[in-house]
Amino acid sequence: MSEMTAGPARPSFAELFTPKLVTVLREGYGAADLKADILAGLTVAVVALPLSMAIAIASGVTPDRGLTAAIIGGMIVSALGGSRFQIGGPAGAFIVLVAATVHRHGVDGLIIATFLSGLILTAIGFLRLGTFIKYIPYPVTVGFTAGIAVIIFASQLHDLFGLTLDGPEPGPLLPKLVALGSALPTVSAPALGVAALAIGLILAVRRFRPHWPGLLIAVAVASLAAFALNLPVETIGTRFGGIPGSLPAPRLPDLSAARVVEMLPAALSFALLGAIESLLSAVVADSMTGRRHRSNCELVAQGAANVASSLFGGLCVTGTIARTATNVRAGARGPIAGILHSCFLLLFILIAAPVASYVPLAALAAVLVVVAWNMAERHEFAALLRTSWGDALVLLVTFGLVIFRDLTEGILAGFALGSLLFIHRMSQTIAVETGTALVEPDEADAAEARAPYDAARTNDPREAVIRISGAFFFGSVSAVAAALDRIGEKPDSIVIDLSAVPFLDSTAASLLSQYVARARAKGIRIRIEGATGELKRVLDTLGAGTH
User: Fold this and answer.
1) Where exactly are the transmembrane stretches of this chain (predicted)?
2) Do 381 and 142 contact (CB within 8 A), yes or no?
3) Which of 169, 443, 448, 517 is most buried, judged by most C-beta within 10 A?
């Protein structure tokens, strides 16, 4: 007997959940690595500073909450995460959800939802469900990203043009656009000029000096211009009174049963989007570096980061694709760069917080308008519309629901529709080849006589050979059942060959079990060949047998 080779050993708990920081330090970390990580951390901090404040303001909270999330959450993501280069912090993708949560439940509700989402993410990671989150279809990710981009863009028009609204700005897109359109006569020329200056600087730096921190340069120059010219524009100081010069003391949110039940739907939405966004960001980092992240370890870190951020009053945290890519391009060697990025942001709060009071809101709106433009993935959107009707349908359904209904509904509906289309496509790949002629349905009196059994396929002219190839599962059962029922003349024996079936589920096994039972009841000898390993186990469990 030949020896059976054992399959690859499953990784241990320690291997799955050891932070990449530990891995990097074990490999050896020297002065050159620290120097590279200091430069990378500083570069990312320069990018994260205006973004964190802008995302917080667009989400309907004070800018310091965005900085707190970047400092506390970003540090924990880098220290505990499963990616060497992931940068955690507030993300533009969350603006829609956070703003809606703040509008309905207040800032306290947001903090509770963030805390609960952290617990959910931690549980998802420890249950090793991160692999399944990667199965979100590409048209869904493009659709919800493009939808978020449209909503972010619309949410910034108020500050971009310095509009004066008669009442609160509506949340839904269409009423928002109607309200903004009616307020167009109140456009502020100074605010529009500051925004145009910021956008122009961002584009110019990106075109001529792509390695320079364009976002920070644009915000700094726009702030200096507004201050020097004494422009009548709204700033962080005039709207929020500036930002505190230190982090707040940690405080446990209200976790009463009533509040937990109330905020659980929002927490689930935060956790779902955070998991998707963070793992997508980790995949981007892997593609840029050739490394591999630990998805479940990353989710545990994201969960811990959200819990910690909520304790300090910060926004929800996730992996950020743009800042992670900046970290890689800046030459980071490991997670210490992400930790240092948080330290640099903390220094800004401790030393230069009063400066933030002079930042015009129009400049921060300009930053987010550029971010939304880059998020839209216009080329990918257009390509998917041309790829196939199925992909286009999933894309448009997701995009439409995100814009006009709800982000979570868009993701879930897109995923469900994409899954149904995948099942349909997979069901078309099944093939049934038989050594007998098949009877056409509803044609018992066919003019042509049935062809005899193909003797070349079997040594016994009274033995039918049925070869099934392809994924045999609930989606393809009807096609196989129809082929089995169409076997013509009654054979003395039947052989069902499954050697070309890579996968078989319980529905398929149940069909074969019933077919075997009916055939044996008629006195037909029947056996199943070619099933090995898991296929044989499923068949035996459901009584089909393989002999």
Assistant:
1) 38-58, 70-98, 110-129, 136-157, 177-205, 212-231, 263-285, 343-373, 393-423
2) yes
3) 169
Helices (H), 156-256: 157-161, 173-182, 189-208, 214-228, 236-240
> Among candidates 489, 529, 500, which has minimal Cα distance to 512?
529
Question: What pLDDT, on a 0 to 100 scale, did the predictor assign at position 490?
Answer: 66
* Host domain of residue 86: 31-421
- Per-residue pLDDT, averaged over 496-504, amounts to 85
pLDDT of the residue at 155 = 85
Q: Per the domain annotation, does 156 fall within a domain?
A: yes
**401 with 467, same domain?**
no
Residue 238 included in any domain: yes
The whole-angstrom distance between residue 406's C-alpha and the CA centroid of its chain comes to 16
Spatial neighbors of 477 by CB under 8 A, at least 6 apart, are 507, 508, 511
pLDDT band at 321 (very low <50, low <70, confident <90, very high): confident
Alpha helices in 356-456 (DSSP H): 361-375, 378-387, 389-404, 407-427
Query: How would you class 25 by CB atoms within 10 Å of its CB: exposed for 0-12, middle for 13-18, buried for 19 or more?
Result: middle
| Same-domain check for residues 417 and 458 | no
